[in-house]
Amino acid sequence: MISLLRRTKLLALTLTSNPKTLRPFLRLLSSSSKFPEYEMPSVTWGVVQGRKERLVSRVIISDYLKTIGIIPDELEQVELPSTVEVMRERVEFLQKLGLTIDHINEYPLMLGCSVRKNMIPVLGYLEKIGIHRSKLGEFVVNYPQVLHASVVVELAPVVKFLRGLDVEKQDIGYVLLKYPELLGFKLEGTMSTSVAYLVSIGVSPRDIGPMVTQYPYFLGMRVGTVIKPIVDYLVSLGLPKKVLARMIEKRAYVLGYDFEECIKLNVDCLISFGIRREALASVIAQFPQIIGLPLKAKLSSQQYFFNLKLKIDPDGFARVVEKMPQIVSLNQNVIMKSVDFLLGRGIPAADVAKMVVKCPQLVALPVELMKNSYYFYKSEMGRHVKELVEFPEYFTYSLESRIKPRYRRLQSKGVSCSLDWFLNCSDQRFEERLQADYIEMETVGPSFVMGGKLELPGNEVVSDKEDESDDEELYRRTVSL
User: Fold this and answer.
1) From CA 217, how far away is CA 338, in angstroms rounded?
2) CA-based end-to-end distance of the chain
3) Sign of the CA dihedral with 145 first, then 148, 151, and 155 last
4) Using CA atoms in the order 389, 393, 394, 397, what is the torsion angle rounded to 10 degrees?
5) 448: which strand partners?
6) How far apart are CA 202 and CA 222, in angstroms?
7) 118: which DSSP letter?
8) CB–CB of 110/94 below 8 Å?
9) Of 225, 293, 222, 312, which is closest to residue 254 (Cα–Cα)?
10) What is the pLDDT of residues 223-271, one digit of tens each?
11) Residue 447: which region, alpha, beta or left (left: phi > 0; alpha: psi -120 to 50)?
């Protein structure tokens, strides 16, 4: 005992006589300046008490918590501070963060965390990695368990792992605000296996970072019970893995759709509305969100609308959905603007219906663009409206970059041909046609064939990119991402 007192006196003498030795302790005490609105707690948390004193203190603290509305039942097995003053400091610290008594009652175990040893180091680290101080309270409300974590052992390794996935440094805070539970995951567990599986099916490693930023929740999904069943099912519908991988890269949230209650249910719904099974893969590739919508209600509403206003029967509506699945979410007022424009040009309602079934993109086009294209068609080209009924895709081509330049070339060559012949081909193919001595018959356009690849009847050149694989070509042509 005497030896301990001597060492204590010697330490005190050394600290007061040597300013250099004192500085680290002063820095420790001043470290709370990062949170100037918070005061450091008193040191009474370290008072050594006997068993009887601890029981008395616990009763007093429990009574205090009850008086402010906190239910202390869950704190029975938690080590509490020795005085009410320290507990009051913890409660007030959390309230300064923005937490209410109700928030504390949802997870009262946070009151077992020391302000100095737990809360301030954790909150200081979260602010350092990009979570704004004004958002710290929200973060703690969403994931109060973070207050128990060790910065060095638990938090920093997760942040390092995210950086290793190419998540940008400035996006770390954003990712953790969206999915704070990431800080509680084991690195060698779910996060690593989900990434490894997605890369194995063709997802590019360099796209994992942007995927995490967009939809970090997939890092917490089990491969065997969540991700793989979805992937296997979509592949069984005819989606090539390479196309599916590109789809997941851009729309990672499709992995969050419930497999039984959402994905399978919506696929069955599409079939029940007349969408052919062999067209399902193309529908999903074009509009991945369709497997996550409240689809039955949307399809019922649009089918009734198309029948009532456009005189398109259910079978015709099914063909429209196959060609443009986004139609299920398109506002009906937007649809009618394009339809009214065509009717206003003197095109019979029956022909307008045929045009929409053949080229559903018409109903999503801005009317102003349609007016310009129609004016050029009538005034410059001088063609009959019947040709537009046969080739409504005319309105989908750019007037300035495709229609006008190619029409001028036809005029200079003295070539007379159909709209389809000079518009529905690549620039290279158009030049080849102009150099030919005859006009060949139009061939069927590209079509999605169940099994994976894009078949091109007649081996026509449809892209200027000669090095694209068939699967990449399919994705480029059919998926609007």
Assistant:
1) 40
2) 75
3) negative
4) 170
5) 454
6) 18
7) I
8) yes
9) 293
10) 999 999 999 999 999 999 999 999 999 999 999 999 999 999 999 999 9
11) beta
